[in-house]
Amino acid sequence: MTYQAAIEFLFNSLPVFQREGASAYKPGLGTSIALDDIFGNPHRKYATIHIAGTNGKGSTAHTLAAVLARAGYRTGLYTSPHIFDFRERIRVNGEKISEEAVVDFVTRWKGMDSALTPSFFELTSTMAFEYFADQNVDVAVIETGLGGRLDSTNIISPVLSIITNISHDHTNLLGVTLEKIAFEKAGIIKSGVPVVIGEVLPETEPVFRAKAEEVKAPIHIAAPVDAEIEDGGSILYPSTQFGAVKGELSGACQVKNTATILCALLRLRELGFNIPDEAVGTGFANVCEDTGLMGRWTVLRNKPLTVCDTGHNIGGWEYIASQLSSRKEGRVHLIVGFVNDKDISAILAKIASIEVDKRLYFSSPSVPRGLKAEALSCKAAEFGMEGEVIDDVNLALVKATAEASDNDLILIAGSNFLIADLKLEA
Hints:
Blueprint: H1 3-12, H2 17-20, H3 30-38, E1 47-52, H4 57-70, E2 75-78, E3 90-92, E4 95-96, H5 99-112, H6 120-134, E5 139-143, E6 160-163, H7 171-174, H8 178-185, E7 195-197, H9 205-215, E8 219-221, E9 228-229, E10 235-240, E11 243-247, H10 253-270, H11 277-285, H12 287-291, E12 298-302, E13 305-309, H13 314-325, E14 332-337, H14 345-353, E15 358-362, H15 373-381, E16 388-389, H16 393-403, E17 409-414, H17 416-420
Parallel strand pairs: 1-5, 1-6, 2-5, 6-7, 7-8, 13-17, 14-15, 14-17, 15-16
Antiparallel strand pairs: 2-3, 3-4, 9-10, 10-11, 12-13
């Protein structure tokens, strides 16, 4: 089997939520437990850290993995979705899983002739768990796919659980209220295992505290951190428990993510992990290079400043709006695109409320779930917004670049799949 054939099997023969939406969502742990048994319960061979939340999971997971690797731990990292390459999902010390390992796993699975019918995420989670065992990792940072309680990854017994925050997202699957969404995320809180909560709201804090009390899990609410945004977008945290730390990741959301990460690192120290202050500083400063993270206010070029951000829900857009509103000069050229199975009304209302000189370009992710650009334009008109309809995000970027001056900002934002369509030479 070739690598391309293995990837085609994973994406074309299994239900894939990222492409198909709710029809591919398969809640429940039965299949994941059965798969885990077939492959010898690999996740039990190393320590794990489990991360759930509406926003910030990826940044938190990547930064923790970078710090742990800088501290000398062989560190696995499992995140989703990928942007350009399936292998982005599974890394050890920043290195993507090899094509040969993907082929080997798929070949063995197809040869088992099992009666199980796993989803894409169930099977790839098993792939990740086994790969980390084969690579003799010391610790693996595991990000949930969707929710928590019934997520495929929730078969692990972590040393630390982390819930970054709660916002409205996937409400058709997780519930329409913050309390219901928090209940699903709180499902990763395990008996006696410390849990870090990055952000609490009046609706969510009682849910988390009740679950932690029920299972006797020590609960830690992350404390705010002081932050200074520097030229170029990096953020200095001048007075953390680990000394002054400069974060490579930019964007207003990273200040709260950093509070979560620092609280988690303190808990890991208490659990016996040897994490020097220097490892914290170098991990924060080099997270993109160390772990391959993209899509979090990622700068693509400087003149005009061109940024991409995977802001796919209202929580993410609260931070994007804050970032844009802080601009003092120049026009904002905003290229947006979303999937068709989410209510984006709150996002469009937020975009409409951003009081900057802005020009809009409506695009469409190329996946089957992609909301057509014309339909997005019609929806935006309900909020008093007009713009150019350009289905291909790369053509939209070419047009925006031609129309922008050097002190303008071009932002490509929305679905992960819109960012995945980018050809960076465009």
